[in-house]
Automatic annotation (TrEMBL):
It is found in: Cytoplasm, Cytosol. This is Carboxymethylenebutenolidase homolog. GO terms for molecular function: hydrolase activity. Residues 28-243 form the Dienelactone hydrolase domain. GO terms for cellular component: cytosol. Pfam families: DLH (PF01738). It comes from Crypturellus soui. It comes from the Eukaryota. InterPro entries: AB_hydrolase_fold (IPR029058), CMBL (IPR042946), Dienelactn_hydro (IPR002925). Belongs to the dienelactone hydrolase family.
């Protein structure tokens, strides 16, 4: 099992039958799900440390498609090993060096090109969870083609003031009991965004929620968390809908 601070522990996860399909986009494999009718709106889903094959992230991709968007989760790890629940927490820092969420620009560009040229997308957003939340924060500073972003419990990297000059509207979702992100970091993020950010942004902290709370399939949710998970999802879709 994963080391304690890391992931919402729902016990054994339920199985999931995916609605979408796997595709090859240049050098990247990806999981894609499309809504029943044509749309020119798309959302990239950035996976967490467990990678693009993890059933929880595929459930999210399918959910995004159900809301009327072309949804795609590329393998941002480019075929390298994702983190596994059996891996040792002590090795995590080394693993992260090989899986840097700030080095996703080339893959993002490849997927954006695919969505525009092959899927007819005119407006594209991005949502990301944990590792993917960090990737979203990075991409919303670097890639003007992304019309809106939602970063869910991405650890806040405070490397420079330019971390806060977002190009397009971004929503930051956190859990109140997340051991990986301190409340001080969230407060600082808010202060810095107020100072440097020229576009719409929002920060919201969900009571009692731990790291990884918003990805769960309905049958894996604990009853006391269900309202907060559903609220976070609704907030995520409301944000995307406002800008895409």
């Amino acid at each position: 099992r994963m080391a304690d601070p890391f992931l919402y522990d729902s016990g054994e996860r339920s199985r999931y039958r995916c609605q979408g399909q796997e595709v090859q986009i240049e050098h990247i494999k990806a999981y894609i799900c499309k809504p029943s009718s044509f749309t020119d709106k798309a959302v990239i889903v950035a996976h967490d440390v467990f990678g693009w094959l993890f059933s929880d992230i595929r459930y999210i991709v399918d959910l995004v498609a159900l809301h009327g968007y072309v949804a795609v989760c590329p393998d941002f790890f480019k075929g390298t090993e994702p983190w596994k629940p059996t891996d040792h927490w002590a090795d995590f820092a080394d693993w992260m060096k090989e899986h840097d969420p700030m080095k996703v620009d080339r893959e993002a560009d490849v997927v954006l090109k695919y969505l525009k040229e092959q899927c007819g997308a005119k407006k594209i957003g991005i949502v990301g969870f944990s590792w993917g939340g960090m990737a979203v924060h990075h991409l919303m500073l670097k890639n003007p083609q992304l019309n809106a972003g939602v970063s869910l419990y991405g650890r806040i990297v405070r490397d420079s003031e330019e971390r806060y000059n977002l190009l397009n509207p971004t929503f930051f979702i956190f859990g109140e009991k997340d051991h990986t992100i301190s409340y001080d970091q969230i407060t600082l993020l808010e202060e810095k965004l107020k100072q440097y950010c020229k576009v719409g942004y929002k920060i919201k902290v969900y009571p009692g929620q731990v790291h990884g709370f918003a990805q769960l399939k309905p049958e894996d949710m604990k009853p006391q968390d269900k309202p907060y998970i559903e609220e976070a999802r609704q907030d995520m879709f409301d944000w995307i809908k406002m800008y895409i």
